[in-house]
Every structure is written in structure tokens, then in C-alpha cells.
Amino acid sequence: MPDLAPLTETILETRRRVSPGRSVLVALTGIDGSGKGYVTSRLARLLEEQGVRVATIGIDGWLNLPHVRFDLANPAEHFYRNAIRFDAMFRDLVLPLRDRRSLRVEADFAEETATEFRKHLHAFDNVDVVLLEGIFLLKRELRRHYDLSVWIDCTFETALERAVARRQERLPPEATVEAYRTIYFPAQQCHLLNDAPVAAATCILENDARLAFIRG
User: Fold this and answer.
1) How many CB atoms within 10 Å of residue 216?
2) Which residues pair with 28 in a beta bridge?
3) Does 62 have pLDDT greater than 60?
4) Rounded to whole angstroms, how far apart are CA atoms 182 and 171?
5) Which phi and psi angles does 68 have, rounded to 5°?
6) How far apart are CA 96 and CA 41, in angstroms?
7) Residue 132 in contact with residue 26, Cβ under 8 Å?
8) Contact between 84 and 32 (Cβ < 8 Å)
9) Which of 27, 49, 109, 140 has the most CB atoms within 10 Å of its CB?
């Protein structure tokens, strides 16, 4: 687990500088299986211990339905372009919450295995910091929205081991490996090539012991 104390202090300092009339928006992103959700939950607890009111938003509920996000003809590029309903998420939830600090809005929600949307109420009051967690958050057109952005660094090898262990999309191990090798990791390579997210991030957190061996 990376040391989150420096990032916590950076967020607190940003909160002190930003207008009290709005929230601080922090993007936490990385490849599938990098540990984004775990890091985000730990960071939220550390901030709350400092008296900060935190809202955590995961983008998975903003997935497109399977018939929209998957395409057999061009699986990686199509997933990169169509996996997440970013326009609706930022318009209806993320930016209004950042700008107003409080929000109640009902929106379409989809789990990974869902074939239709269900309604979900998002309710937040007087939020100091919004932690937005998910893949592809450092696409070029999204970066302007954030006060801070964090790339959670992880090898594809470790990420695949984590995905198999947690049974991504409730698939058996062999199907999980196939999906990651043909869709998710190639889609992340599209992101790395098109958006250079690592270079664009405010900070980088290493969340993989293998990185120490790779970098010597």
C-alpha cells in the first residue's frame, strides 16, 4: 500500500486554497486492477480523520450497457471510446457537486453484469472533497475539470492477478484472463497512447511491489 500521507496533505492544502463555495475535485485513476477503489477508500478515511467531509464517486455505475460498451469487431478501441457515460456523469453529478458542494440527483445506474439501467439516488451534503475513482479519467477532454489527479501505478501482470482473484464481472479465471488480454488491457493501451495519462497526472502512487524490481 503506498504512503498516502503526502497526498492527504496536498489535498488539504488545496482545500485551503480553493474557494469555500465549492468542493475540491480529485481524480484517482489507473489501469483496470491497479487498486483504485482500495486506495480511494483509504484516502477517504484519512481525510475524514482530519475533519474533511468527503464524497467518493466510482464511475462503474456510469457504465454503458453491454451492447453499447462491447464490440467484437474492434473490442479495445470501442471499449476505450464507449465504456463509460462520461458526458452524463460530469453533467449530472460530478460538476454540479463540485460547484455546489451539495446535490441530490437521481440517475441511471448499471452494474457490470446489468442488461438494463436502474435508478439510483446520489445524495451529498456540504462536501469538502470529491474523490472520483475509475478508468480513463485522464482522457484529454476531462483533465480541465480536476483540481488534482492521481495515477495509481501498477503492472499489467499484477493487475491481472488481482482481477482473477476478485472474479471480475463474475467470470471464471480463464474467461477473466481472456477478457483482460483482448479488451481491458488493450483498451488501456489505447488510453496510454492517446492521452499520456501518467505524464498528465498531478502525482503518481506506486501500488505494486513489482515496480520496485522493474525500476531497480
Assistant:
1) 4
2) 133, 150
3) yes
4) 14
5) -95, -40
6) 22
7) yes
8) no
9) 27
